[in-house]
Known about the structure:
5-stranded parallel β-sheet, 13% strand
Amino acid sequence: MNIVLLGYMGSGKTAVGRQLAIVMGREFVDLDLLIEEQLGQSISEIFDRKGAVYFRKKESEVLREVLNSKNSAVIALGGGTPIYGDNLKWIKDKKNTLSIYLKITIEPLVQRLWDERQNRPLIAGISSSEALEEFVRKHLFERAFVYQQADVQMDVSDLSVEQAALAVQNIFQKEQGVI
Ligand code: S3P
């Protein structure tokens, strides 16, 4: 069974996924990193040089490769992965995949994203934290109904990376009937 982590930028998919993989002794796959490796460019460079449409096509392609080739990995998606094309349907239709939405409230999200905005093409041009908050509120509102279609939702707002990873492991084991 693959564990797929989805959610908005900055929700901790990569950090929690990496920790979860360590705790569970599983392979960790980060979709953004895989795309960067395959293309030899950072996500920002891909957006700048090739454009968003190219990125989204590549993202769908890599998602399919990963879901078809892995069977017991922890997979962190990009924030937009389930939003575009039929990616969500692909994730939901895979029988060996448990999808988990890492939910986080606006305040900690904006705080985190403000510090990291340079590496994130969708928000790199936003020049004040107030404007960022307004963007995130609207954008998350538009996307939340897609994220909410994950098999499980988990609020990670008040959890450390370690706590969130343990909580996901717990949910996974319950879903599997292990505990
Ligand atoms: C995006 C999120 C990013 C990355 C790209 C687009 C999005 O991933 O895939 O910048 O549309 O939300 P993270 O959620 O890992 O930052």
